[in-house]
Amino acid sequence: RLTGDGASSDIRHIVLDFGQAAFPVLEGQTIGILPPGTDAQGRPHHPRLYSVASPREGERPRYNNLALTVKRVTEDHDGHPVHGVASNYLCDLAKGDRVNVIGPYGTSFLMPNHPGANLLMVCTGTGSAPMRAMTERRRRRIPLKEGGTLMLFFGARAPEELPYFGPLMKLPKDFIDINFAFSRVPGQPKQYVQDLIRARHDAVWRQLNAADCYIYLCGLKGMEKGVDEAFRDVCRQHGGDWEALLPQLRETSRYHIETY
User: Is 132 helix (H, G, I), strand (E, B) or coil?
Assistant: First the structure.
């Protein structure tokens, strides 16, 4: 379990061991989980896709495994009680249980191949999974001195609700520029990732205009509009035009969005 005992969400870090089966993945890809059993109509459950949270070498290098970041789904976006079949199945797994997996999938959210690229990452909740994969890939390659900066905007209700909060706090500040936004801390004003993007406008503006910067957004669909407006405000503040810049970023495959 990644979230605190008193947190409103139960988020788990789950490692799947593939043994002798070849299953190569890249940072930014997803895999499909096939829950056992059938639905109310007696049909097999649909596969549920999850972003891989570990780098290409695996959660533990050379052990042919990978990690997932899974939130136990107990209610829908409107707060109505639901039972997430795949998420509850995964969160209730015991060590040694066998899991049916399909994939991997995805070519549109991949980490850039050239190691010196800058990464600007914006995420909420379990949208941190691909960001963790990319960050861990870079962390393991620090001794190679490949260059490239990392900047992360990470939103959650409170620190105890934020996956990987502890490990992120231990990363060197000269390795990654981390900006946490907490929206439900008692006695503190609500803060969202778009607020911090505006607050860090100088650094964000430099990244938006760097030819070697790649931008990744991952999280709840509602975050997309707020982040888009924040980038627009940053551009306006520095005399730029987000409407002109965004098509350029997309044409060069430097702007990636994955929301759910």
Answer: helix
